[in-house]
Amino acid sequence: MKKIAVFTSGGDSPGMNACLRAVVRTAIFRELEVYGVYRGYEGMIDGDIKRMYTHSVSNIVQRGGTILKSARSKEFMTPAGRKKAYENLAKHGIEGIVAIGGDGTFTGAKIFFEEYGIPTVGCPGTIDNDIYGTDYTIGFDTAVNTALAAIDKIRDTAASHDRIFFIEVMGRDAGFIGVECGIGGGAEFVMVPETKTDLDSVVKDLKNLRKTKTSSVIVVAEGDDAGSADVIMEKVKTKLNDNTKEFKVTTLGHIQRGGNPTARDRVLASRCGMAAVDGLLAGKQNCMAGVTNQEVVYTPFQDCIGKEKPIIPDHLELIKVLSI
Ligand code: F6P
């Protein structure tokens, strides 16, 4: 193998740049030519592909976002789109691919590999942490810390005004951010997509808590089955029959996707990036390089996207016990 390509795709995550840097520098160290594909699968289809050098990734290990840019491509979901992408890679003589992204990225990579056979290794880049085959994904730690910093501030004002805050964090299909923010932020309740939210029991507990606590923080993952934080707040207010203005909603939104990656994310990103290139050179394909129990492991894309990564049940119990 002499030439490889690397791209970032899907929702960006802090640490993608550190991962890209590791891919580019490892490739060059191992005497490969490396090409950056801009805007994920969109750029592959458009032929937006450029050679990268050691200096192309200088001074980015600490930066959030992705210098290669990212996109969610509809066209790549079609055979015609993938054919164009293949032809562009073939023009550059690409023999291996590193795909940095989440489940959508790996779903595309798996289909592309099955159709065109270019060996591909993925790196888990998403704030959601919802990828099987790695204990943590690149960007998750930073996103949790960003959300926590905001929750700490909200707690100050919630306590000063005796208010109940519903704070919505990201996680369309996964509650990892919600759970860690709940534990770290001392939330009274956490609502996540993995468990059914019973608002009647929340209201009952809230009534009890109000005997001893004057303010509460409720963390809602955006994909919760009871609705968005706005909707849940209105339902709880109605059930409590409380018409005061002491119920507030804050949606943290995309602030969670930006910012300088934490040390944990930079280290994880660097390890996965190097492991992806070394994996390709060792003949790995159609799989992701992740880290579990401190060790680099390669997991088939099939499992990364197909197997469930459950939230740790102890964590929900922890939040319940510590919220009294
Ligand atoms: O997958 C990462 C993520 O940030 C999710 O938590 C969130 O639901 C989604 O992306 C938002 O996507 P977009 O930035 O395209 O609106």
What does this structure look like?
The protein is α/β, with parallel strands linked by helices. It has 2 domains: 3-139 and 261-306, Rossmann fold (3-Layer(aba) Sandwich), CATH 3.40.50; 141-257, 3-Layer(aba) Sandwich (Rossmann fold). The chain has 11 helices and 11 strands. Strands 3-2-1-4-5-10-11 form a 7-stranded mixed β-sheet, with helices on both faces. Strands 7-8-6-9 form a 4-stranded parallel β-sheet, sandwiched between helices. It is elongated and about 70 Å long. The N and C termini lie far apart (59 Å). 6-O-phosphono-beta-D-fructofuranose (F6P) binds next to loops.
**How large is the radius of gyration?**
22 Å
CATH topology of the largest domain: Rossmann fold
* Total number of domains: 2
Q: Please list the strands of the largest sheet in the order they lie side by side.
A: 3-2-1-4-5-10-11
Q: Which percent band covers the strand fraction? A: 15-25%
Number of helices: 11
Averaging pLDDT over every residue, what do you get?
Answer: 97
- The 3D shape can be described as elongated
Count of β-strands = 11
Indicate the low-confidence ranges by residue numbers. Answer: none
- Span between termini: 59 Å
* Helical residues, percent: 40-55%
The CATH class of the largest domain is identified as Alpha Beta
Oligomer class: single chain
Bound molecules: 6-O-phosphono-beta-D-fructofuranose
CATH architecture of the largest domain: 3-Layer(aba) Sandwich
